[in-house]
Design goal:
The complex is a heterotrimer of chains A (255), B (274) and C (234). Chain A is an alpha/beta fold and 255 residues long. In chain A, 43% of the residues lie in helices and 22% in strands. Chain A has one domain: P-loop containing nucleotide triphosphate hydrolases (Rossmann fold, 3-Layer(aba) Sandwich), CATH 3.40.50. In chain A, strand 6, helix 7 and strand 7 form a beta-alpha-beta unit. The two termini of chain A are 21 Å apart. Chain B has 274 residues and is α/β, with parallel strands linked by helices. Chain B folds into 2 domains: 127 residues, D-Maltodextrin-Binding Protein, domain 2, CATH 3.40.190.10; 110 residues, D-Maltodextrin-Binding Protein, domain 2 (3-Layer(aba) Sandwich). In chain B, strands 1, 2, 3, 4, 5, 6, 7, 8, 9 and 12 form a 10-stranded mixed beta sheet that branches. In chain B, strands 10-11 form a two-stranded antiparallel ribbon.
């Protein structure tokens, strides 16, 4: 039944169905099915995932050793890498992947943000325009608004990249090592932007080696180990996050 | 010591031998550099004439086939020993300015006016070349000019002048290329052009054109041989050039020129002064 | 030696005096080469991009073909085009031979392989994240391509300049399909060939000077762009 609904949804967006899917706790945003990936045609596979669901309301901390394929998996999920074998089915929504070292367009900070606004349409575009000032405040980039993006520091670049995604309001946000090499202040600002997105109904996936404020937001853990992917719940973190400052997310979790 | 001696002696011997051979060579006429027009060269006349001279005199004639303008320029710069061209006025200037000496008439051939087979300007009915050219201009028909300062180009300009036509008129195009190429272009654009008969015979079968006017005395094209003035430059082979000039006007060579045939047609009429 | 300096002085005089015939020739050259370049840039850039970003059957063949075509002498292109456009040829009815349009077509064909090859390597060397970021931020494919082109703009400029230099300095094809007709299809290079033939060196040298100055200008421009490119990437 759900499969059929999903199929119908893919062909024609249906707000009623979409609403149902969002609310249904057992419904998968993304389904990985027999996903295999290898660098060269006959080399050993990087990973071989039989089946995995990303359920709505799940914020995922993606873990794994260096070179285990975390980045590749995230790129596959966001359709930046072609699927070689198996399938990734996505239910709905906009997926946004953030590179570990972000790419900024030539020109000012504002121009980078206007790029997003210009790719939106209709109400979304108007909304993003109105949200621009607030977003700059949130990311503490207001003072740098007219500055050339190439002159920004590492932390500022990361924040600008996240702010672009924030303007886009994705349904799934994939953050590749967002906190690497960032100071606590920048992480705090990133955290503010991400929680704001979550409050608006976005789910996130964070890959990281260390725990930080962003991984603390996660309630589920995916671990790549030896080419396979395992899922586990992070109960203590979930409690921790929920009690602290993530009421919308919590609400959705408990529906 | 002894080895060194032998070495020096043999080296000296070698040098002497070499000098001797150069001298032996110099007793012949050596290398003669001739600048001439493409029309004489391309018609095959030189290939027909020159081997006999080279054989009889132990000479080598290096033929540089260019337009008349360039040929005279090369004579002026002392790059060649002798020139053979067909542009009377330019040649007269060349001699009067002291770049060349001893101009001699050798032969003449003639030009023909060719054009599209359907003759859009009605040139064929004209009784003189001037009348023919006037018709082309008044019909604004396409006319391709060599435009390269060659003897043919100069001839053409002279003819336009005597036809009292102001250049350029509507259909007049200067292309600045060799005669063969100009015939090709004329055929492609279906235009009239003035060509020497030699090139015309060689290209007749390859182009979609026909003779529109021929036989007028003004279309005659006299060739002269001129020695480059030896007082202007050192190292010119004037002896060789003189011998070549003498040979060209000799009775035997003049007869051979008259006997030359291209595609079964006589091209050049010898006219050296007796 | 005196005649060399004289020629040179006469050439400079011709240039600065605004000799009409001379500047007409220069105008023909620029007109033809610019038109050919502008026409070639769009398809060449798209092909170069496609070769760099998609693996499709025949991609390798197309790449080697491009490299081969780059080495084809201009006269050969001229000859083939001549045979096609000749009255007796298959495209003879177009009546293109010995017109500026024919020269444009010839130079278009000459610079296309060079442009494809150079834009291809430009895109290959591009930061892939530029395209991906634009895509992730919801941009249309055309905007994504635009972002990528801005990312590699210096390399693209270089390829345009190199292509322009190749076609404006080209003589074989221009002579063959243009016909060197005064005021119509006589370009800088065909005029030099002719003036030399005529023994009129001054005009030839003057035109040579124009080409030389142009080459210098383009090279200096390219050097400046490269320098800028390095700064930007740092």
């Amino acid at each position: 039944m759900l499969e059929q609904e999903l199929k119908a949804l893919k062909q024609e967006p249906n707000p009623r169905l979409e609403q149902r899917l969002k609310q249904a706790p057992a419904c998968a945003l993304l389904t990985l099915d027999h996903l295999e990936h290898r660098w060269l045609e006959h080399s050993q596979s990087l990973f071989d995932i039989e089946q995995m669901h990303w359920q709505s309301g799940e914020h995922i901390w993606l873990q794994g050793a260096n070179g285990s394929g975390k980045t590749t998996l995230m790129r596959l999920l966001s359709h930046l890498e072609p699927v070689q074998k198996g399938s990734i089915r996505s239910a709905h929504g906009r997926i946004c992947y953030l590179h570990q070292t972000p790419y900024l367009f030539a020109g000012s900070v504002e121009r980078n943000l206007m790029f997003v606004i210009r790719s939106l349409k209709g109400d979304e575009r108007l909304g993003a325009k109105e949200a621009l000032d607030h977003g700059l405040e949130l990311a503490k980039l207001t003072a740098l608004r007219q500055q050339s993006a190439v002159t920004l520091s590492g932390g500022e670049r990361q924040r600008l990249a996240l702010l672009r995604a924030w303007l886009l309001q994705p349904d799934l946000l994939l953050l590749d090592e967002p906190a690497a090499n960032l100071d606590d202040d920048s992480i705090e600002l990133m955290y503010r932007l991400v929680t704001d997105l979550i409050a608006k109904g976005c789910v996130i996936m964070v890959s990281s080696h260390q725990t930080n404020q962003l991984t603390d937001l996660c309630n589920t853990c995916w671990t790549i180990h030896g080419g396979s992917l395992t899922r586990s719940e992070i109960t203590q973190h979930q409690d921790h996050c929920a009690s602290q400052n993530n009421s919308p997310s919590q609400k959705r979790d408990t529906v | 010591m002894r080895i060194l001696n032998t070495f020096i002696r043999s080296a000296v011997l070698a040098v002497v031998a070499a000098t001797a051979s150069v001298q032996a060579y110099a007793e012949d006429l050596g290398i003669i550099r001739l600048a001439t027009t493409t029309s004489t060269y391309n018609s095959g006349l030189l290939d027909y004439l020159l081997p006999e001279f080279e054989k009889a005199n132990g000479a080598t004639i290096q033929v540089i086939a260019v337009g008349t303008g360039k040929a005279l320029r090369m004579g002026r710069d002392g790059d060649v020993d002798v020139v053979m061209t067909h542009a009377p006025q330019a040649e007269a200037k060349f001699v009067s300015e002291g770049h060349g000496i001893q101009p001699r008439a050798i032969m003449y051939n003639d030009f023909v006016l060719v054009g599209p087979k359907n003759d859009p300007a009605g040139v064929k009915s004209a009784d003189s070349i001037e009348a023919a050219l006037t018709k082309i201009a008044s019909h604004s028909a396409l006319f391709i000019s060599r435009g390269d300062d060659s003897g043919t180009h100069k001839k053409e300009l002279g003819l336009w002048k005597s036809a009292h036509t102001k250049l350029p008129f509507e259909g007049y195009r200067e292309v600045g290329q060799g005669m063969g190429k100009v015939l090709q272009i004329s055929s492609e654009l279906q235009a009239y052009t003035l060509t020497d008969r030699g090139t015309w015979l060689a290209y007749k079968s390859k182009v979609d054109l026909a003779i529109a006017s021929e036989g007028d005395k003004r279309l005659f094209n006299p060739y002269q041989v001129i020695l480059v003035n030896p007082t202007k430059y050192d190292g010119l082979n004037t002896t060789g050039a003189q011998a070549f000039s003498d040979w060209l006007v000799s009775d035997a060579t003049q007869k051979r020129i008259n006997d030359f045939r291209l595609h079964g047609e006589r091209l050049f009429i010898a006219n050296a002064a007796k | 030696m005196a005649s060399l300096t004289e020629t040179f002085v006469a050439a400079v005089e011709l240039l600065v005096s605004g000799d009409k015939a001379l500047w007409t020739i220069i105008a023909v050259s620029f007109n033809v080469s610019f038109t050919a370049l502008i026409l070639a840039i769009v398809p060449a850039t798209l092909i170069g991009f496609a070769l760099a970003y998609w693996r499709f059957p025949g991609r390798w063949l197309l790449l080697s073909l491009t490299h081969t075509l780059m080495a084809v002498p201009t006269v050969v292109v001229g000859l083939i085009l001549f045979m096609l456009l000749s009255r007796a040829g298959p495209l003879g009815d177009w009546r293109l031979l010995f017109t500026q349009n024919a020269m444009v077509v010839g130079q278009f064909l000459l610079c296309l392989p060079l442009l494809v090859s150079m834009t291809h390597s430009a895109f290959q060397g591009a930061d892939k994240r530029a395209w991906e970021t634009a895509k992730m931020l919801g941009a249309s494919p055309i905007r994504c391509l635009w972002v990528l082109m801005i990312e590699v703009r210096y390399a693209l400029y270089s390829s345009f300049i190199a292509a322009f230099a190749r076609i404006i300095a080209e003589v074989g094809c221009a002579m063959m399909v243009g016909g060197n007709i005064l005021n119509y299809t006589r370009s800088i290079t065909t005029a030099i060939a002719l003036e030399t033939l005529k023994g009129e060196y001054a005009q030839g040298v003057a035109l040579g000077l124009v080409l030389f100055l142009l080459a210098m200008l383009l090279n200096v421009g390219m050097g400046l762009l490269r320098g800028k490119g390095q700064l930007a990437s740092r």
